[in-house]
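Re: Re: ligand-bound prediction request (bumping)

Still looking for help on this. To restate: I need the protein modeled with flavin mononucleotide bound, output as structure tokens. Inputs repeated here so nobody has to scroll up.
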Amino acid sequence: MAGDILDIVTSPVTVVTTKSGDKINGMTVAWIMQAAHNPASIVVSIAPERYTHTLIKESGVFGVNILAEDQKALGKKFGFASGRDADKFRAVKYHKSKSGLPVLDDIYAYIECRLVSVANAGDHDLFIGEVIEKTWDNKKAPLVFKSSDFF
Ligand SMILES: Cc1cc2nc3c(=O)[nH]c(=O)nc-3n(C[C@H](O)[C@H](O)[C@H](O)COP(=O)(O)O)c2cc1C
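Reply:
Sorry for the wait, this slipped through. Here it is.
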């Protein structure tokens, strides 16, 4: 059976948050993976037209909120509107990390990274970040991306 690569490669659904000046934002990102063990590093793939792309380049920091399996609604909220024209945090429960980034409540895990480098991959850019902070609720299960859940 032929299939789209989107359905073949398994990934978690995350909301990548950042903060530049007073502006906070977050966007849904399914294309994320561990990039290195030492130093612990994560890569997230973000298209240049996303507002989050601009803000991470300005701030040099991003947080990966790996959603829990019952948080599909948050994936939709942060994945179908831009922070350029909507406040996606309205009516969303979150707190702040040590460096002031939004951390969504009740998620599976949070991994905060300092941006180390950016590489191009066609219509997306790969943001490679070194892990500076992490929290994990090992009693929860992560939300796994399935395109039919969202598109
Ligand atoms: C389930 C899901 C997964 C997504 N994964 C990605 C991704 O990996 N990379 C990306 O650039 N956009 C991805 N998007 C699209 C962005 O989340 C979307 O364009 C968002 O509105 C950008 O917000 P911003 O302009 O506030 O940064 C995804 C959307 C959904 C619904």
